[in-house]
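@channel sequence for tomorrow's demo:
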Amino acid sequence: MDKEIIIRSGSTKVDYALTKNGRLVELHQDEDENKFAVSDIFIAKSRKVLSGLNASFVNVGYEKDGFLHYHDLGPQYLTQFKFTKQILSGRRKNYALKDIKLEKELEKSGSITDVIAPNQPILVQVVKEPISTKGPRLSAELSIPGRYVVLVPFSDRISISQKIEDREEKSRLKRLVKSIKPAGFGVIVRTVAKGKLVAELDQDLQNLITKWENMCAKLHKANFPSKVMTEVSRTNSIMRDVFNDTYTSIVVDDEEVCSEIKDYLKTIAPHKESIVKYHNPRTPVFEKYGIERQIKTSFGRTVSMSKGAYLIIEHTEAMHVIDVNSGNRSNKANSQEDTALETNLIAASEIARQLRLRDMGGIIVVDFIDMRQAENRKKLYEHMRDEMSEDRAKHKILPPSKFGLIQITRQRVRQEMNIKTREENPDGNGNEIQAPILVIDKIKEELEKHLKNGHKKVTLNAHPFVAAFITKGYPSIRSKWFMNHKKWIKVSPRDAYTYLEYNFTDKDGKVL
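structure tokens (generated this afternoon):
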């Protein structure tokens, strides 16, 4: 299986496309202007403390105040608050936590008005970026993510990723981390730490301790509010969270970013440094690898699938609704039930991809085609779970209801990816249409349908521009059709046609 990361670098943002066997499965866009990214840490001040919500609104410098709930303060909030006040006042110069005296833990059923007052300094971390009209969601329980481990100040707990199922490996990792863990810090061991040596874990841990000390050093002279910790490089952040040994290629169109990624891989996976390749930007990298075309086909209200099936994706204020349609697919199955199962399995795979691609979160309700047999509903549910097993966002899938609905909840930490795919009609009538680049794909699908239906001599009638695009060059699109179907397709330019108008005729000139 070929897994690639395609990186397009611009002046203000970097786009990351993750592909599996050439098919786009994730798309990330990191903009330099994003000042409130997940994991950023701010020294801020509480503004309003509301007992009814058991939460405080915190001024972090965004147009809308951040939201901090009592349950997100963390059990050791009082210890952290005392530590922060000591640094702000200049009374504490040592940022190690081995000599820290722990205060009383917060009660789970306590009230925020007992621990936070208006205009109180507070150290907070972004756990959900600003979405729509809401400000960032905040937590006072800090965590500093590394490649193999996550450092948790004011804790003593060691946790192992649930995705590591081998008990012996879990025990080994816990034993290693316990031997190197600094006092006063908890550690969460990430999935990618599986099989790693203690020296690699220790190096990662020391890097995070250095980050913590550098952050604390900024606090004394910091203004309110101000960011005191962020990712030094957004590229490294993506590589840390996305990259693993299964990737076979990383393609970058910027020499500086390419060098940065190579340097990063030298420290975490030297054997993978050779998979990083520089792409000369004279040919746009997203066009070279077919990413741009896939973006045009994958976003929007309607998503086409194989065999004529398609999805309708609607977004309401409360949830996402996805409708599965069989379309005009040819029915080779033995029964309607078999047809429904086949279409639903194809749709489940595409839906799992769409959730990752668009970064859809919250409640998602999928209306699959009804199936009467419980065994088939079980197959669909298990297939849906398998397809979403690689999704890094926390999610939960409920079994199909009697009405064929599957409900999914998926963690949402940033704005949903929403790319406009409709364009102005080149005919100049003021309407918006599906991207013209996709007209060739539609012609190809329709041609295959006519050939399968037994039409031997088929003529394509199209606007001269479209006809020239199909017939010119080597190998031309028409020659590729000939190689695939062993039939020569006549292409007839029609001056009277509008840009995107076309049809197929048979040997007698009748429109198919």
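heads up for whoever presents: The radius of gyration is 28 Å.
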